[in-house]
Design goal:
Number of helices: 2
Order of helices and strands: HH
Strand content: under 5%
Helix content: 55-70%
Distance between the termini: 50 Å
Length: 75
Amino acid sequence: MDKKTKKHKRLTIAELRQFKGFDSISDEEAENTIGTLEKLSVLFYSLYKKQQVIKENNSNNKKKEKKDEEQRGAA
């Protein structure tokens, strides 16, 4: 399966209720909580991916600068 089309398993109400403090919430509260957790997860993942791109760009820039310096020194 392609990574971009992979479906993620959504937390169920029963699974949420296994966590301390969530054992007696209503189904509606549980759905709202799950939705909020899902949005938060997407936000954190997006931030993580952006950080990865920034690190990769910085690394590539440093490599390019080093190569440029080496070429200037050889000239």
